[in-house]
Amino acid sequence: MFVERPPPTAMRALAVDGARQLALLYPPAHTQLSFKHSTDDEFGRALVTELRGHGFAVAEPAVRGSQLAITYVVDDIAQLYRILLRVASAQRRITLARMYTHRDETLRAAGAWTQQVSP
C-alpha cells in the first residue's frame, strides 16, 4: 500500500538516503536525471532537492535525451516503509530497494540496499 499521509520528516530521511545511494552509483556532476512521473509529493520534492544538492542535473518532467530516467515508489508494508528507485538508461535498468522501520518519529534502515540489474 502506498503511504497515504507520509510524515514529512520520514520522507525527507528516505530522500536523503536514496540520493546518497544514487550518488554512490552514478557520478553526480556527470549525470543528468529525469523523472518519468510527477514529483509533487513529500518524498519527490525532497528527493529532487537532495539530488540537486549532490550535484545531479535533474529535469522535471522528463525530457528527451536525458541520460537516466527515474521512477520511485514509497509504500508501507506491514509497518515498514519500502523505497524503490528504478533507474533506466539505454543499456540497462537498475532497481534499488531498501526497507525502514518508523517508530517514535525515528526512521531506521531495516536492511541494506538491494540492487537488481536487468538489460
Tally of strands? 7
Q: How confident is the prediction overall: mean pLDDT?
A: 89
Structure class: alpha/beta
Instruction: Tell me the span between the first and last alpha carbons.
Output: 28 Å
- Helicity range: 25-40%
Could you tell me the strand content as a percent range? Answer: 35-45%
List low-pLDDT spans: none
**Helix and strand sequence:** HEHEEEEEE
State the major sheet: 7 strands, mixed
Subunit arrangement of the protein: single chain
Integer tally of domains: 1
**What count of helical segments does DSSP give?**
2
The whole-angstrom Rg is 14 Å
Shape: globular
Short descriptors:
119 residues; alpha/beta; seven-stranded mixed β-sheet; 2 helices; 7 strands; 26% helix; globular
What is this entry, summarized?
The protein is α/β, with parallel strands linked by helices. It has helices spanning 8-25, 42-54; strands spanning 32-35, 57-59, 68-77, 80-88, 93-103, 106-109, 114-118. It has one domain.
Written account of the structure:
- The protein has 119 residues and is an alpha/beta fold.
- It has one domain (8-118).
- Strand 1 (32-35), helix 2 and strand 2 form a beta-alpha-beta unit.
- It has helices spanning 8-25, 42-54, and strands spanning 32-35, 57-59, 68-77, 80-88, 93-103, 106-109, 114-118.
- Strands 1, 2, 3, 4, 5, 6 and 7 form a seven-stranded mixed β-sheet that branches.
Topology:
Layout: H1 8-25, E1 32-35, H2 42-54, E2 57-59, E3 68-77, E4 80-88, E5 93-103, E6 106-109, E7 114-118
Parallel strand pairs: 1-2, 1-3
Antiparallel strand pairs: 3-4, 4-5, 5-6, 5-7
Helix pairs in contact: 1-2
